[in-house]
Specification:
It is a single chain. The chain has 290 residues and is mainly alpha-helical. It has two domains: 94 residues, no CATH class; 110 residues, no CATH class. Helix content is 82%, strand content 0%. It is built from twelve helices and no strands. Helix 6 packs antiparallel against helix 11 and helix 9 packs antiparallel against helix 10. The longest helix is centred in the middle third of the chain and has 48 residues. Its main location: membrane.
Length: 290
């Protein structure tokens, strides 16, 4: 086993050095591409060449499509292919480190557990990273859904008071500048920047809907674009109907969160209950034996 681990370590290290020499500055443009959670960019560049030349994307198209779609929802359509490639490089870099680390551990200690655990984690960790990415997308969608009824209520009040739709949206965005990290208001800020950059109201709103990639936002966008020219009572009435529907959706999400929170408490309560039984029952059993 030690000989096998030595061969694995040499092959993986030599392969990385060879790919490092081959790729050169091929992926230098990706080094400054903003993307959260990437810690091994320096290690992943040679592996990116292996992913690209080995056509890994074509081997698992369904998985790669889901990963790219999730990245598009978080970061937008621009550079989505590059970010997918970076994430693949990051995942395979962790796998490379775990296999080499497990092999070295087995080589120095003589225990088979090192290479076994390293190989197991090399498979599990990339799957966990993909699962975490999808979880971030679901959390982002839920945050948008929870905040959208509040935005609609503000728009209804402002438009009902005589403001135009554009000015009402600007007031809502300017009033939440301190909360620009929220995905909904971050996308609204981009939409107002599109207006200033020369996009029409309709184009900017459609781009906003595509970036959010949430069905309820698409319904909101359609309602606004169909009714904003008419304004007045018709527009306010359509927004109120939509707001009522979104509040019901928000209540359903809140109930789901409450149920999830209560289910997470079940295991700690069971553990505490067992500990109490042991603490109370042990002295009683000892007294019976005496």
């Amino acid at each position: 086993m030690s000989l096998v681990c030595a061969v694995i370590t040499l092959l993986f290290t030599a392969g990385w050095l060879f790919l490092r020499f081959r790729c050169g500055g091929r992926y230098a443009g990706l080094r400054k591409l903003p993307m959260e959670g990437l810690r091994l960019r320096w290690l992943g560049e040679p592996i990116l060449l292996l992913v690209e030349k080995g056509k890994v994307v074509s081997l698992i198209p369904a998985v790669m499509f889901k990963i790219q779609r999730s990245l598009q929802r978080i970061y937008g359509m621009r550079y989505s292919a590059e970010r997918t490639l970076l994430l693949m490089g990051e995942m395979l870099s962790y796998s490379w480190l775990l296999i080499v680390g497990g092999s070295l551990l087995t080589l120095f200690t003589g225990e088979h557990a090192g290479i076994t655990v390293g190989g197991f984690l090399a498979v599990v960790l990339p799957a966990a990273m993909v699962s975490d990415l999808h979880k971030k997308v679901r959390l982002r969608e839920q945050r948008i859904l929870l905040e959208l009824p509040e935005l609609l209520n503000s728009l209804v009040l402002l438009v009902g008071a005589g403001e135009t739709v554009q000015r009402a949206i600007l007031r809502c965005v300017n009033g939440r500048l301190g909360d620009s990290a929220h995905p909904l208001y971050a996308e609204l800020l981009k939409m107002t920047a599109d207006w200033e950059g020369g996009y029409s109201f309709q184009q900017a709103f459609e781009n906003f809907s595509k970036r959010c990639a949430v069905q309820e936002v698409s319904i909101f966008t359609t309602a606004v674009l169909l009714n904003y020219r008419r304004g007045g009572a018709d527009f306010v009435l359509s927004l109120r109907d939509l707001s009522r529907m979104l509040w019901e959706k928000r209540k359903a999400i809140s109930r789901t969160h409450g149920e999830q929170a209560s289910s997470k408490l079940v295991f700690p309560m069971v553990v505490i209950f067992l500990i109490v039984i042991v603490l109370v029952g042990t002295p009683a059993l000892m007294m019976l034996k005496m």
